[in-house]
């Protein structure tokens, strides 16, 4: 931002006026680098680099506050004008309605009648020209002057050009037209905010005014708008229409609603001073109410510990109060943040302010920093453990791009959700925020296939990343997921149900190992057949994964159509898990058991059932009811063949029996086995294969 040294000195006590060299040195030491320095007549202009969180310094008063704080003095604020000089009331001339309180926290309007629009006085032109602004007319120049003086952008409308004597703050209609002050006809979107009159939009809120209500030489009555807008809405509209203004630049960095009234009074007073006219009584105001002053607690001992400098409470209080931060107490210190400093939200912010005001050069630079590392957070420890586990299981970690094509996103966007698309000329081929990490994993698999990579056991990938979509109401939904992808074990180029089941068992084993690592050995993991949540997953091989009844993700065979889209020669099993839950879930504390003292007896039973019967159903039927001496059951194999019959399969279950006090005889297992066989027969109409 261009800063005039002469203009800065207008707000400093005369005895503390600064030269250009002093201003440059002070600002540099406070963390504001000077990009360039130039002379404009007898004045010096500094191009000050301002970080995005310091919108308050995008004004001469803001810069003057910084210089005054270093000197230990207060700025001399400009005197606001006087409202309501005319006898008539504003409500007789204009009405105001704010329909979007979320996007416009506060909108105010004042009416000034009888102005004479013409050239600006020399002092006003000089101030604006010093910072690179072109003089337009006295009324518009005042609005630009206020922007650079106080950091409060404002706008003026020709009252006679406002239809219906009304101002309405609302969302634009989809496709609504607006010709802006730069002469361009723009087509608006429904997520953009406008200031309209009784018939049509008159300005793109927070960005640029409209040509239809522009102040001209024939204007006699004006409406002075002073408002604040949602930074996200302003940034979105500014980028979409490729128009960047001094107003949008400041609104994107937050203009606090509590600064508006004083700035509006100042603007109204200057307009009357340079253009004449009278301010009508009253102010139209519509908003959601003022926020309470922010309160932050600061511990003096923490200041000393972070800065490595022994400071007294008085020194800390002095530094904070020089920035007009109100302080109470001496340990801890209760700090009330000024309205123009929305960036101060936590203790660390205040510690940085103390360091800046005292000067970063006062903080010693040590040859070595004494650091005692603490134990990693639970989530970080789990993150590392899961990554190590998957690497040990043969998975390679990938980092893929967060934008994908419409086709790639459409295959994996959850049903009932829609994709989030960015409007960026550089992202024409892949403009969609990924709704799943699987497209990236499939693209990585394709790259490895084309490179001829053929590791033993097939290619296996994992990735942890954010995925994005929007719900039916248009609200963005972001989730952290752990994505897995592995090859279905295929002999040659033929594959079928048996190979897919083998791939699922590999994926299930990986998921169970992840859950055990993150939550504990006692966590029950269930795979249940379900309808696919997206088009890219095969409904014939899809499972919903839950732990203790809580859904944490899915595993599925990628459809043939999707595999062909990625030119894959072999099928893949994909899985996505709720990574946030894995990192933060409570651990299931397991007990310690001694190894069994006596051997057990194992019996394999092969049940012949229809294809619809799943292993989970058989497993539950075997184990849900107490069976004497039964201590375990596990899957052995599935067989299909002519001797079984079409549409049927043989599922072999291994039953383990044991007595903790003695060695069992084989005939003692006969009764429990027979009982289990009868239950499974009755439940599924199963036969037993000998």
Overview of this structure, please?
The chain is α+β, with helices and mostly antiparallel strands and about 700 residues long. It folds into 5 domains: about 1-70, Phenylalanyl-tRNA Synthetase, Chain B, domain 1 (2-Layer Sandwich); about 90-285, Phenylalanyl-trna Synthetase, Chain B, domain 3 (Phenylalanyl-tRNA Synthetase, Chain B, domain 3, 3-Layer(bba) Sandwich), CATH 3.50.40.10; about 295-360, Phenylalanyl-tRNA Synthetase, Chain B, domain 1 (2-Layer Sandwich), CATH 3.30.56; about 380-585, 2-Layer Sandwich (BirA Bifunctional Protein, domain 2), CATH 3.30.930; about 600-690, Ferrodoxin-fold anticodon-binding domain (Alpha-Beta Plaits, 2-Layer Sandwich), CATH 3.30.70.380. Helices cover about 30% and strands about 25% of the residues. The protein has a 7-stranded mixed sheet. Helix 5 (about 140-150) packs antiparallel against helix 8. The longest helix is centred in the C-terminal third of the chain and has 22 residues, at about 495-520.
Total count of helical runs of at least 4 residues? 19
Q: What portion of the residues fall into strands of 2 or more residues?
A: 25-35%
Mean pLDDT: 92
Largest sheet: 7 strands, mixed
Shape: elongated
CATH architecture of the largest domain: 2-Layer Sandwich
Major sheet strand order = 19-23-24-28-27-26-25
CATH superfamily annotation of the largest domain? Bira Bifunctional Protein, Domain 2
Number of domain modules: 5
Uncertain runs are: none
């Amino acid at each position: 931002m261009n800063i005039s040294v002469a203009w800065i000195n207008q707000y400093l006590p005369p005895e503390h006026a600064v030269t250009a060299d002093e201003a440059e040195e002070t600002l540099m030491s406070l963390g504001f680098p000077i990009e360039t320095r130039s002379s404009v007549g007898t004045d010096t202009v500094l191009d000050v680099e301002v970080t995005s969180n310091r919108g308050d310094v995008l004004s001469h008063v803001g810069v003057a506050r910084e210089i005054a704080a270093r000197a230990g003095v207060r700025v001399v604020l400009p005197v606001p004008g006087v409202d309501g000089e005319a006898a008539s009331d504003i409500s007789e001339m204009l009405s105001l309605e704010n329909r979007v309180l979320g996007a416009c926290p506060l909108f105010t309007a004042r009416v000034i009648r009888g102005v004479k629009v013409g050239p600006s006085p020399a002092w006003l032109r000089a101030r604006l020209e010093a910072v690179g602004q072109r003089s337009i007319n006295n009324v518009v120049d005042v609005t630009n002057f206020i922007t650079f003086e106080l950091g409060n952008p404002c706008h003026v409308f020709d009252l006679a050009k406002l239809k219906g004597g009304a101002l309405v703050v609302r969302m634009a209609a989809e496709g609504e037209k607006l010709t802006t002050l730069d002469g361009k006809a723009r087509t608006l979107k429904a997520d953009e905010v406008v200031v309209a009159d009784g018939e049509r939009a008159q300005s793109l809120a927070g960005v640029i005014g409209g040509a239809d209500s522009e102040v001209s030489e024939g204007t006699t009555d004006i409406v002075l708008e002073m408002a604040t807008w949602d930074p996200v809405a302003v940034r979105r509209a500014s980028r979409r229409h490729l128009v960047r203004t001094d107003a949008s630049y400041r609104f994107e960095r937050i203009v606090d609603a509590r600064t508006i009234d004083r700035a509006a009074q100042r603007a109204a007073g200057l307009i009357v001073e340079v253009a004449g006219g009278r301010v009508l009584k009253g102010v139209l105001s519509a908003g959601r109410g003022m926020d309470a002053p922010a309160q932050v607690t600061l511990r003096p001992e923490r200041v000393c510990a972070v800065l490595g400098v022994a400071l007294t409470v008085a020194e800390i209080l002095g530094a904070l109060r020089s920035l007009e931060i109100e302080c109470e107490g001496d340990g801890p210190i209760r700090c009330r943040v000024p309205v123009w400093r929305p960036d101060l939200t936590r203790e660390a912010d205040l510690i940085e302010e103390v360091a800046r005001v005292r000067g970063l050069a006062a903080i010693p630079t040590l040859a070595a920093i004494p650091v005692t590392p603490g134990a990693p957070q639970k989530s970080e420890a789990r993150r590392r453990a899961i990554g190590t586990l998957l690497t040990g299981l043969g998975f390679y970690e990938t980092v893929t791009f967060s934008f994908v094509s419409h086709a790639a996103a459409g295959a994996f966007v959850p049903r009932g959700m829609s994709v989030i698309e960015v409007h960026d000329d550089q992202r024409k081929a892949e403009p969609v925020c990924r709704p799943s990490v699987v497209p990236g994993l499939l693209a990585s698999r394709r790259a490895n296939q084309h490179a001829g990579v053929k590791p033993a056991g097939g290619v296996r990938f994992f990735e942890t990343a954010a995925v994005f979509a929007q719900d039916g109401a248009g609200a963005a939904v972001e989730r952290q997921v752990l994505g897995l992808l592995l090859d279905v074990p295929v002999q040659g180029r033929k594959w079928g149900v048996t190979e897919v089941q083998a791939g699922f068992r590999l994926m299930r084993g990986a998921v169970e190992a992840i859950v055990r690592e993150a939550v504990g050995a006692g966590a029950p993991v269930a795979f249940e057949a379900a309808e696919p949540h997206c088009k890219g997953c095969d409904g014939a091989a899809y499972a919903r994964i839950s732990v203790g009844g809580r859904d944490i993700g899915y595993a599925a065979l990628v459809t043939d159509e999707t595999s062909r889209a990625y030119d894959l020669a072999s099928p893949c099993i994909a899985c996505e898990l709720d990574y946030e839950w894995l990192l933060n879930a409570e651990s299931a504390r397991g007990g310690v058991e001694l190894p069994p003292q006596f051997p057990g007896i194992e019996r394999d039973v092969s049940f012949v059932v229809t294809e619809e019967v799943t292993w989970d159903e058989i497993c539950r039927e075997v184990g849900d009811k107490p069976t004497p001496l039964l201590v375990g059951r596990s899957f052995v194999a599935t067989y299909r063949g002519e001797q079984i019959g079409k549409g049927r399969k043989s599922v072999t279950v291994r039953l383990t029996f044991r007595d903790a006090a003695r060695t069992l005889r084989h005939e003692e297992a006969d009764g429990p086995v027979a009982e289990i066989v009868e239950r499974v027969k009755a439940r599924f109409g199963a036969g037993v294969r000998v």
